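Please decode residue identities from the backbone states below.
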């Protein structure tokens, strides 16, 4: 489902190995505990040029309220161009156009329980629609982030998309039916409703670790990260990634996604970004990522963030 499409060019450039690196407003997708590490407030927006001309966008805002914790709001939008309706009798199209899309709106909370341990939650409402049919549900995410005392090692864990089942319903399910075609003279156009199967949310468990091996040496930082993923609708896999940052301004990233996942089309990722300090504590972040998708070609993703 659309909930499994990764967000944020920084995270994607690192191959999706981000659950222990999370420290920005994108953390509401990866590991809600990460927003507790935000100083002040941060707004982010990311745009993905997804497969088949599908657009996938994510927006988030989080603010640190001191002893109260950090509050955040987020939204995900997967949209596409209008499509022409086809039928069995008119396979080339009826001339009628319809919309399809998927949306999620979330409210997040993160808090530092100690100077090294953080926890976070994200509650979200989901809605999917196609033509005159819709499905909706609610889901819950939880995450933790722990800074160990061993050489700067960080450990992160998150469980995302634990929620209700989804089911399509609406005007398109209304049909006319002959209750018994073997009986003549009865009404062949009795109103009836079709019922679709329910489906589960794409529940995902992530656990990962990361370490900064340079720790500011030569005014540089080099973060190495690895995540293990256990989804309920796919095979287990591993993501690995690295991020090199010079002078806290320029970043280069690389990674590999879905290691050990049989028949996966995903693989190498690359990316980069710049952080420009504007005034006071405000800074602007621009990031780009490229991800290989096998026979489906590549995916390009752009992100912008503002800290103030």
């Amino acid at each position: 489902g659309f909930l499994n499409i990764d967000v944020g060019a920084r995270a994607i450039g690192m191959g999706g190995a981000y659950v222990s690196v999370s420290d920005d407003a994108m953390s509401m997708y990866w590991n809600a505990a990460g927003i507790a590490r935000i100083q002040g407030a941060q707004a982010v927006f990311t745009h993905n040029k997804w497969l088949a001309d599908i657009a996938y966008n994510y927006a988030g805002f989080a603010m640190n309220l001191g002893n109260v914790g950090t509050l955040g709001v987020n939204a995900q939008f997967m949209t596409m161009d209008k499509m022409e309706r086809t039928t069995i009798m008119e396979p080339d199209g009826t001339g009628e156009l319809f919309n399809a899309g998927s949306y999620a709106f979330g409210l997040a909370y993160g808090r530092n329980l100690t100077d090294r341990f953080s926890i976070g939650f994200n509650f979200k409402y989901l809605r999917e629609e196609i033509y005159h049919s819709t499905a909706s549900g609610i889901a819950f995410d939880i995450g933790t982030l722990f800074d160990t005392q061993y050489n700067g090692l960080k450990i992160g864990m998150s469980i995302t998309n634990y929620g209700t089942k989804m089911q399509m319903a609406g005007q398109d399910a209304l049909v006319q039916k002959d209750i018994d075609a073997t009986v003549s003279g009865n009404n062949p156009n009795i109103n009836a409703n079709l019922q679709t199967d329910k489906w589960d949310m794409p529940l995902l468990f992530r656990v990962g670790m990361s370490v900064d091996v340079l720790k500011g040496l030569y005014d540089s930082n080099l973060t190495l990260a690895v995540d293990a993923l256990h989804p309920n609708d796919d095979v287990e896999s591993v993501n690995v990634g690295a991020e090199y940052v010079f002078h806290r301004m320029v970043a280069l990233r690389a990674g590999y996604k879905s290691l050990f996942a049989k028949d996966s089309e995903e693989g190498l990722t690359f990316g980069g970004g710049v952080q420009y300090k504007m005034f006071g504590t405000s800074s602007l972040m621009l990031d780009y990522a490229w991800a290989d998708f096998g026979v489906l070609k590549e995916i390009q993703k752009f992100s912008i963030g503002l800290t103030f």
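Observation: The radius of gyration is 23 Å.
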